[in-house]
């Protein structure tokens, strides 16, 4: 198997640490509230289900859902992000490229670095920025969303696909496409490959799930998965990390 190439030269990394209260606060950033259209009624239903009566949608990017076939959640999330382009990349294209580079065998992607390399090649209109130490610096994530970025983030998916704590045994990828602020804290809007429906999760739950990614599950695909040097919880793995996709001005 060929050795993975290093991250692209223009890949940057950030761990901004201005204080952000993810548990709720009366002092919200002065972002303009987005007026939802009838096509985004699903968001209003999600807000109602969480009883976020004072919620403000500070960012939302509409992408169509793509369902995964096998362990392709990361590639599916990246393909959904590419819908902002006239000719979006297909999951099959990403799978072929990831195999050539030695990033995957069956579609799995257990490294944020691997995902950054693919994003830099197939999303030329976006600047990939590595987000690290997310549990200590959650503002790097909210800042990216508030400035029109999308975020590829790994987490453990429960039976209902919501964030849970399984030490990485249920590792899954989501594409964050929206941010909601309220007195109950921040919630994120997400697309992922296991549902046609938009998801809404408390940011605190997602960050806790992301921070618990330690190892791959025991029920692995026949033939094994490609695990980066240092493991799932290592410096090239998944734990505490995500990838922001910032559109170039």
UniProtKB/TrEMBL annotation:
Full protein name: Actin maturation protease
Q: Which reaction does it catalyse?
A: N-terminal N(alpha)-acetyl-L-cysteinyl-L-aspartyl-[protein] + H2O = N-terminal L-aspartyl-[protein] + N-acetyl-L-cysteine
The family note in this entry says: Belongs to the ACTMAP family.
Record's keyword annotation contains Protease: yes
The terms under GO molecular function for this entry are: aminopeptidase activity
Q: Which UniProt keywords apply?
A: Aminopeptidase, Hydrolase, Protease
Extract one GO BP annotation from the record.
proteolysis
């Amino acid at each position: 198997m060929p050795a993975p190439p290093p991250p692209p030269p223009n890949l940057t990394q950030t761990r901004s640490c201005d204080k952000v209260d993810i548990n709720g606060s009366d002092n919200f950033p002065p972002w303009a509230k987005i007026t939802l259209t009838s096509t985004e009624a699903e968001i209003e239903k999600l807000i109602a289900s969480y009883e976020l009566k004072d919620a403000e949608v500070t960012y939302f990017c509409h992408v169509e859902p793509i369902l995964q076939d096998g362990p392709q959640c990361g590639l599916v999330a990246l393909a959904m992000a590419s819908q902002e382009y006239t000719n979006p990349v297909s999951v099959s294209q990403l799978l072929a490229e990831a195999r050539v580079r030695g990033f995957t065998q069956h579609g799995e992607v257990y490294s944020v670095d691997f995902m950054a390399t693919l994003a830099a090649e197939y999303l030329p209109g976006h600047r990939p920025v590595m987000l690290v130490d997310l549990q200590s610096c959650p503002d790097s994530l909210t800042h990216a969303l508030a400035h029109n970025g999308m975020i590829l983030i790994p987490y453990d998916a429960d039976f209902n696909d919501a964030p849970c704590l399984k030490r990485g045994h249920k590792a899954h990828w989501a594409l964050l496409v929206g941010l909601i602020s309220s007195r109950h804290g921040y919630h994120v809007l997400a697309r992922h490959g296991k549902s046609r429906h938009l998801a809404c999760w408390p940011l605190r739950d997602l960050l806790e799930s992301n921070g618990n990614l330690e190892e791959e599950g025991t029920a692995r695909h026949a033939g094994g998965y490609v695990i980066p040097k240092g493991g799932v919880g290592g410096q090239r793995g998944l734990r505490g990390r995500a990838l922001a996709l910032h559109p170039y001005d």
